[in-house]
Amino acid sequence: MTIRHFLTLNDLTPAELQQIMHRAIELKAMHHAGEIFEPLKNKTLAMIFEKSSTRTRISFEAGMTQLGGHALFLSSNDTQLGRGEPLEDSARVISSMVDGIMIRTFGHDIVETMAKYSSVPIINALTDDYHPCQLLADMQTYQEHRGSIQGKTVLWVGDGNNMCHSYINAAKQYDFKLRITCPEGYDPNMDLVKANAERVEIIRNPLDAAENVDLIVTDVWASMGQEDEQKLREKAFDDYQVNKAMMNKADKDALFMHCLPAHRGEEVTADVIDGKDSVVWDEAENRLHAQKALLEFLMARK
Ligand code: CP
Ligand code: NVA
Predict the structure, then answer these.
(1) In the chain, where are the structural domains located?
(2) Fold of 134-283
(3) Number of CB atoms found within 10 A of residue 205's CB
(4) Are 9-130+287-299 and 134-283 the same fold in CATH?
(5) What is the C-alpha separation between 103 and 125, in angstroms, rounded?
(6) Using a 6 Å cutoff on CB, does residue 137 contact ligand 2?
(7) What is the mean pLDDT, run by run of 10 residues, along the chain of 302 residues?
(8) What is the pLDDT of residue 1?
């Protein structure tokens, strides 16, 4: 059977993404009921981290344990990858010993190269361009709280970053409309926007953009690797904060999501992230269940 990778949401069909979402909801119920389910017994997931993580590391590691397998944490500092061993060689060697490789890194080309040379599935756990695992959890969270997201309108507020790009892919794959409100100079990849023009639009005025939307999502103003730009970005993004005024423009049933970690008082106010419309804790927990469904899909295949 051919290996399936998960580098972006486009690596799975809309039907497969729905299947994984519904399976995640099932696995969550089973886990909460204390049911033991170990389809990945004896399997190992190598987890390569070139950037920091709380949620991603814990959810993949705990997820592998719960599925009966093992997760191996590899930081680039402690492996030969960090000392310049070619990616191609690393991919060949690591994949000869494990059943799946998860990688969080900088350039998206790094996960593409890993996928080219790996004999086991590669999972993108965040690159500078995409964060597809987070979208699995976000889509599950919307489904659990409000039902299908198909035909709804989502607003992305802030940087046109890796999360924003994954929201653009999600608009296509889960069939919703996406508005993006960001300051000039911080637009997402415009080729991606144009390729999805029937579903995605950029609206500069944040309050106009929020009119009647069903979900508001934001993320930090400076992503990992952009720490030096923090001060500059605080100025540029000043008008792009999710606050009560913005939530009040949205539909009365609108939800708020944030992949976390969050900076209260910057991209979101405390009264929104800690308020009644926020589902960020469910969203974070769902990383576990969504990725277990993904791991089962990719690694339990014969
Ligand atoms: N949302 C997310 O990916 O969190 P971590 O950086 O903590 O993994
Ligand atoms: N855009 C953020 C997401 C963190 C989960 C970053 O890349 O740092």
Answers:
(1) 9-130+287-299, 134-283
(2) Rossmann fold (3.40.50)
(3) 10
(4) yes
(5) 5
(6) no
(7) 94 98 98 98 98 98 98 93 94 98 98 98 98 99 98 98 99 99 98 98 98 98 98 97 98 98 98 98 99 97 65
(8) 72
- Name the active-site residue from 5, 23, 55, 104: 104
> Looking at residue 77, what is its pLDDT?
85
- Which pLDDT value is given to residue 248? 98
Q: Whose CA is nearest to atom 6 of ligand 1?
A: 53
Q: Is 219 a catalytic residue?
A: yes
9-130+287-299: CATH, from 3.30.460.10, 3.40.1410.10, 3.20.20.70, 3.40.50.1370: 3.40.50.1370
**pLDDT score at 302:** 58
The DSSP-derived string for 59-101 is HHHHHHHHTT-EEEEEEGGGSGGGGT--HHHHHHHHHTT-SEE
Dihedral of alpha carbons 147, 150, 152, 158, sign: positive
What ligand has the least distance to the C-alpha of 133?
1
Task: Name residue 71's beta-bridge partners.
Answer: 45
